[in-house]
Amino acid sequence: MKYFYSFVAVTIVLTALSVWFVPGVDDYVEVTFQRYLGQAAR
Fold first, then answer.
1. Which of 9, 10, 19, 27 is deepest in the core (most CB within 10 A)?
2. Residue 11 has what pLDDT?
3. Residue 40: which pLDDT band, with cuts at 50, 70 and 90?
4. pLDDT at 26
């Protein structure tokens, strides 16, 4: 379980850094997140 939390933390940090420093990634992250939420809401 410790590895799972470490993986989630690293993923969040990498996502945040890529959104801040790489142009265009924020749109991709937003679309992916909205797609995930749409599936979870059904």
1. 19
2. 92
3. confident
4. 87
Contact criterion met (CB below 8 Å) for 42 and 32: no
Listed residue (36, 40, 9, 13) closest to 28, CA to CA = 36
- Would you give the end-to-end CA distance of the chain in angstroms? 28
Q: Name residue, tokens 């969040």.
A: 12
Q: How many C-beta atoms lie closer than 10 Å to residue 25's C-beta?
A: 14
Tokens 């799972």 correspond to 4
Alpha helix positions (H), 1-42: 2-21, 25-41
